[in-house]
Amino acid sequence: MRGAWRLVVCALAVTGVVSTADAQRSSVRAARGARVAARVRDTVQAVLDRALADSAFPGAIAVVGSRRGAMATVAVGRLDARDGTVPDLHTRWDLASLTKVVGTTTMVMQLVDEGRIALDTPLVRYLPAWRGERADRITVRQLLTHASGLPAWRSFHKDADDAAEARAQLLLVSPEAAPGTRYVYSDIGFLLLGRLVETMTAMRLDSAFAARVARPLGLTESGYLPAYELRPVVAPTEFDSWRQRQVRGEVHDENAFRFGGVAGHAGLFASAHDLARLAQLLLGGGSLGGTRLVRAATLREFTRVQDTLVSRRALGWETPTGGNSAGTRLSSRAFGHTGFTGTSLWIDPQRDVFILLLTNRVNPSRENRRIGGVRTALADAVIGALEGPRTPTTSARLP
């Protein structure tokens, strides 16, 4: 018995040593993580401070994080020259074309997941009301990759008197080129994809987003048509010569406004808090905190380059090209998108990092185009802070 107790005492002593060693290793990892986070935060601060001094925007917030959560959050400036409010995690931003991926593409992914639509099926199979000439040749995949042959844009806001007339005109639009032969970034294609979501869910797009994306993921600060009482926390955008007023709390994009503020290409408003949660879910293969919005395999399909003969687009999403807003150091597995108002989101599963930037660069005028350089500088600076200066062994592999 005495020998047995001696073995127990020895085992406890060894366990104590192991526990102490584990605690020390955990402490070292935590300290290293804190140093990296501080370096990233200081780097982001420097980029945004320079951009603010250069008048790239009146206000901005950036969040850098991983699937585990935010690593660094930096806000600079104020919402407007007449509004001294400093942006924060709960400020609502007009996402502009980030709507295409945050809203429309996410819901199309879900419909593919559910087997309710197929990517290589012509859209008219699901949306027979589309009567444009040669519309029957355009597939869902081609719309998502901007290879449909449809024009980039049309002035629905001037050609239609109300939302009903704009929707009727949309369903008569025809392609200008053979589908699958060239890349043209098309708002019209995503207006049609928005109609696809409405048809397949039997809900208006804003209701579908709330039911299928926002509520399941707990995005309480995201949606179309912000309530009037929320306007003080919405970042103002431009003085619009067409509407003859500064735009605040209503969508900046004129066509989305003509469609009633609810459209497949623009119209969503969201906070940095909510978009960081969505980024975590995308880094987590479509799942976050026990909530799965989409299967990992479907997400991988939507975020890979589709047809290099036409472009380097994924489905809905962009991928790094070496010349776009991804900068030069994100991996070839990264995917992201930008919004005209000054928003952007890039996600790199290979590095387990997301880079979110929300600004109102169109305030006071859309002619302010400095945001392009800010986006690339931020992406490159973040990877530099995480990995150090570029070397032959750490360089991002560009497509």
Mind explaining what this structure looks like?
The chain is built from 11 helices and 11 strands. It is an alpha+beta fold. The protein has a single domain, classed as DD-peptidase/beta-lactamase superfamily (Beta-lactamase, 3-Layer(aba) Sandwich). The strands form 4 sheets. It has a 5-stranded antiparallel β-sheet, sandwiched between helices. A hairpin with a 4-residue loop joins β10 (343-348) and β11. α2 (98-113) crosses α6 (187-201). It is globular. Residues 7-14 and 393-399 have low confidence and may be disordered.
Task: Determine the N-to-C terminus distance.
Answer: 68 Å
What series of H and E elements makes up the topology?
HEEEHHHHHHEEHEHEEHEEEH
| Number of extended strands | 11
What is the CATH class designation?
Alpha Beta
CATH topology: Beta-lactamase
Q: What keyword list fits this structure?
A:
five-stranded antiparallel beta sheet, alpha+beta, 11 strands, Beta-lactamase, disordered C terminus, two-stranded antiparallel ribbon
Summarize this structure briefly.
With 399 residues, the protein is an alpha+beta fold.
